[in-house]
Structure formats: C-alpha cells, structure tokens
Amino acid sequence: MIKTENLQKVFRTEEVETHAFQNVSLDIAAGEFVAIMGPSGCGKSTLLNILGLLDNPTGGRYFLNGEDVSLYPERQRTRLRKGVIGFVFQSFNLADEPTGNLDSKNGKEVMSMLTEQNAEGTTVIMVTHSQHDAGYAVRVINLFDGEIVTEVRL
Hints:
The protein has one domain: Rossmann fold (3-Layer(aba) Sandwich), CATH 3.40.50. It has 4 helices and 8 strands; from the N terminus they run βββαββααβαββ. The longest helix has 16 residues. Strand 4 and strand 5 form a beta hairpin.
C-alpha cells in the first residue's frame, strides 16, 4: 500500500538548509497498524505530512497503492486524500499525536476506535510520543535525526 524509497525532505531559506529527514525507505502493508516514534524535531510530523499527501518530498519516491505520487501537484494529491486517506488531528492544524490533548478516558476511546478501524482492514499510521499508545500498533518505527534507526514488530 505505502512504499517509500530514499525519501527526503529539505526545508530551504536563503541562509539555512534543514534536512527534516533523509533516505527514509519503508513499506507499510494494507491493513497494518504502524506507530512512528522519536524525539521532537526528528521528522515524524514531516514524514506524516508527506505520507498523508499534505506535502511533497524533495527527493526520493513515494508509492501509494502502487502509484508513484512523489511529485503530484496539489490537485492530484487532494483527489487522493479525498478518496483514500483520513486524518485524526491533535488540533485543527496538526495531523499527529491523536491523543496528545486528551485526558486518559478520551485517549483510550480514540485508541479503541483506531484499533477497531484497523481490525476492519484500515491501515493506520500514527505519530506518537506515548509508549502506551504505540503498544496498540503491530510495528513501531523509530526516527532519530531524520533517519529510521529501528523498526520493531510487536
């Protein structure tokens, strides 16, 4: 379903070049529940934005359902988002840490809903700092300084 090959994202200004992540290659199967973890600033949210077609990578390739969507313009990304991607936002403008602003009862309810959707065949990719929430996933991908450092199957 999702495959990336040497994916990169670089933010540039006139004075600074910042590599959010580099050479990220991963495969996420249809129906898989994956948690992406790592410290703040390691590229988790940027990666999620690209996987969710909210942004394009600056290098590498991104395949969604076998289709290379790496350099799709906004109109094509919007079409795909409408048809195959959904989001649970932490706040109105941020697509990660789905339980970050919730109390434990409501956080548990969100995680239960995500687990139910996954059991029905929905692929779930979640960015989290919570080891507890990551425990709902079948695989945890750890990022550090813009690179995948470990992948653990639970």
